[in-house]
Design a protein that fits this description.
This protein has eleven helices and 15 strands. It is an alpha/beta fold and about 375 residues long. It has a domain of about 220 residues: Ribonuclease Z/Hydroxyacylglutathione hydrolase-like (Metallo-beta-lactamase, Chain A, 4-Layer Sandwich), CATH 3.60.15. A seven-stranded mixed beta sheet has the order 1-2-3-4-5-6-7.
Length: about 375
Amino acid sequence: MRIIHETLQYPFSTSPEFGTTMQVAPGVYWLRMPLPMSLNHINLYLIEGNKGWTIVDTGIRGDETRDHWHTIFENCLGGKPVNQVICTHMHPDHTGQAGFLTDLWRAPLLMSYGEYYQTRVMNSMMRDGGHWQTSEYFQRNGLTEDFLTQMAEMRSNFTPEPEDLPIPNSYIRLSDGEHIMIGDNSWDILVGSGHSPEHICLYCKELEVIISGDQILPVITSNVSVSPTEPFGNPMTSWLESHEKFKKLLPDEILVLPAHNEPFYGVQARLQGLIDHHEDRMLILEESCVQPQIAVDLLPHLFKRKLEGASMFMGLGECIAHLHCLMTRKRIERTLKDNVYYYRSIDPNLAERATPGRHEEPDDEPMLI
């Protein structure tokens, strides 16, 4: 999903090439690694300490990313070792090289509790076949067996290869409100939820910098989905609550270092913009459910083009996340008929109050992050 705010400022006119780094704050370096999708790169960060380096996020698994890491190690570390590896959250573009990096440097992995164990579960699930729970989840939301076949093929593209080192068997837990010292600077651990269970952000007051991972992105919005793993989850409520929390904690003058798009200023406007965007999506769905609707039939109200394969999976999950949030607000009710869920707005006057055409434009497609 794309939301662009003119109030945001982008201080850097160029981006680092793969295999290089760019200093963005004292002792903080930006690097990029390729991704095999329309979102073709991820931003990673190096923080210099007194005796070594901290890596923040690792890139997706595979030889190409490992080769770029070796180039950086040869040319950019100034003879210092890597002391520790931090992963902001569980997704494969952030954790894919964690085993390789921690093994190469004999360095500990630092993650939140929920993200570490969810990573281990997800890696195991990628090797497993489908189960009845997964089939039931998709069927109850209007999808077919043909789609399940497509999903199995997509999963195989992300399944770890035998030569990929697994996530390490031990880690150091990071918790919300803690502080870690890197060099002479203290970094606050701020945890958000919704995109993933316990997403870590690193905020340094002295440097006026936050490494935000996927929690705060300037152009796209992170996918917030209900998945077959937790079919009755309510991640959208957690996502919105996290942004309200971050609004209270973060001063507007800080530099935001995101995992995708470009570093930027304007965190308060962006946080509010993300909240407003999802509130608008929910109002669209509420107005679209005056008559009972199946989740898959609501996707054209949220996305411009027809969704297929992985985009369908992400789009449907995000649609259901909005619907579950509306259910907790008692604005939508759900009934099961012929093994399919139907969603209906509760407000009897909603059709009269609806104002066609006043919402944001539908999004091009959900982002796969």
